[in-house]
Write a structure and sequence with these properties.
Layout (H helix, E strand, L loop, with lengths): L16 H25 L7 H21 L20 H11 L4 E7 L3 E8 H20 L3 H43 L2
Antiparallel strand pairs: 1-2
Helix pairs in contact: 1-2, 1-3, 1-4, 1-5, 2-5, 3-4, 4-5
Length: 190
Amino acid sequence: MSDNVVPKESPLTAESSEWSALADRVAVHTQNYLDGLAALARGEGGDMIFPLLLLEVAQVSLAGAQLGASEDIILQGNWEPEMSEDPDLDGIRTTLAARLGAVDDYAEVFDPYKDTLVTPYRLSDDLTAVAADLVHGLRHYKAGRPLEALWWWQYSYFNTWGNHVGAAMRSLQALVAHARLDVVEERTQV
């Protein structure tokens, strides 16, 4: 069995080493994504913004896949402790939108099994929506509540950020592929 999948017989307790290890892994991916997104929004990475965003999205997507491969995390009493407001990420969203410019808008099929209509998306919105869901779980984790963090990350992965991270990855992969392949085609034409 993969060490990324939590066995079905594992009890859902804070002492569970499997749950604790998963929370630690997701927290690292989350912090790396948040730090990387903020750095790229500030202009770090220069012209490499698309490949670097693709890398950030792909790495946090691994955390989502680990959550998706785990059994459902249900909190005792099915209750999430109250927290203060999450940080406002609109500054990151607007600076990313400015950096992305004309490629910020793209088309996507929201759910290929239920809704086959093409929907307009914004890459800056997707990247920030993922960050917002991740930061909420990270706040639980840093407050010493790893099970609440896992519950939130898993719930929001299935409900919102999983879709946004997948759509963003497809969009970014297309941008990087066009940048590489279109240049090759131009060089080979006589």
